[in-house]
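Wed. Picked up where I left off yesterday with Zincin. The coffee machine is broken again, so keeping this brief.
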Amino acid sequence: MHTTHLSTLIPLLLPYLCRAEPIPQETPNTIDKDLTTLEIHVAPNPLLTNDTTCLLGIECPEGTTQTVSYFTSVNDKAIIHGDVIFGSEADILAAAVNNTDENVTKRAYSIWPWEFSRKWPLGMILYQYEDATTAAGRGPKFEAAIKRWTNMLPFLSFVKYPDGDVNQPGVLMVRAIEDSTTYSYIGYVPYPEVQLGRPDLPETDYWYTHSIGHTLGLMHEHQRPDRDAYLTLDCSKVARNANGDTPVCGDSCVGTGCYFNILNFGEDWSGTYDIESIMHFNPGDFAKDLNDPPLKPIDPIVFGDRVFPTVTDANRVCDIYYEVCRGVCGDGILALANGEACDDGNNIDGDGCSADCRVEIIPTEWCGDTIVQTNLGEECEPPNTDTCDAFCHLKDPQPHCGNNNIEFSLGEECEPPNTPTCDADCHIIPDTNPGTCPNHCNPNVPDNLCHETTSCIALFGASGDPGLPFGLSYGCACRAGFRADGVDPADSSKQVRFSATEYTSWVFVEPGLSCDTLCSPDTNPYPCSEVPRHDECW
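Structure written out below (tokens, as returned):
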């Protein structure tokens, strides 16, 4: 998404946005990009069609097409939908319907296959800045945008690599561009990249947060098939691009009109429409007159600061990374498995519950009022007694073994106690006959033999195989709360659990086994106590 006057966008928004009185515009707004409109092949979701040729880089199945308009950015990247990197310009030209070269690859790294097959392993995003200048100029605001996501989704992990100007496989290259917006791939790609616009513009915070949403796998909200139930689109109000094309919206779109296309070819658009989503167009984006935008809500709405992901945005990312996501901070639901000590339904610091759902104790306000406010982290009242300290915390350790919460910092290894695999002190009972371990898996298609109810994920810290991606080991992980079907849960040759905290929610199974059997619920938030832990298999 792009406009030459985004630096003036905020004070020019509609009156219903609760901004200042609109400033009259003397000349129509135009987009300073030369756009090329073409029809491209769109691959069906290989996870739904059982077709893996797109993942192998072979020509994708034909029959589904989409009209897009694109321009080129730095590093020869073709940008569609206003801010989405399709691939190189050669990639998008190769995907064109009228391309007669039978040897070209008709697929896009960015969008197809779908986001669920383009996940970052374990929600870990490795990134590097192109150079020290980019790190200094873009880094502070980019990392602030990262924190807006990780506050809500603490399972996400952004790991910085040393600066360098050469793309590395699986490492997000962060480049600087002299533009008002940002451009990014959707989801994980072999050589991921994000191009960050100027940090001095007022809309930068929005764009940086928005681009991270794309990187995690989110599409544009305003391109959902149900958009027209919530907004009306007037294509006559869309600005022309630099080469003067009259915008046309719809399936046979032209120029900037293509930015408003509905995407309706099999995606899983989870949840209800969210007009306040960080992935939604701003009012006025690509508008001929910034006071009269093309997209208008059917029901009046007052927008707040479009800087933070909404709970809907976070839930959608959680759905994509369901194997590792244990909840959303800020949704008003206290999720201990998500590491939350509180959840007041927002992501604001200074109100007693921090932006990342940690308790903010201000003793002079709460501790000492004779009310034990557990939602604020208090454990006792009044303070300064034999059993209650000055911060309203119990002086003697509380009983923990048997509270169904594995507290590794207190030496616990399992919950609940007194089970065949967990002793009375919450320590794991070794298996005297461990048997063999489940086989590892290979995430490469077609070598990924994991059942569709499992995911082949990396086992960080395990001894790797040079023939596997990044030299890592991988295991078929059931979704949280499930174990293998039709086998003895204690048969460690078929399924095991690991003690490492990043894997405590999962059961790892033999490739090919399905996982639709619910685990015993007696060890919430880490169920499946009937499946022994065998760290030697890791």
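Quick read: Residues 124 and 157 are 5 Å apart (CA to CA).
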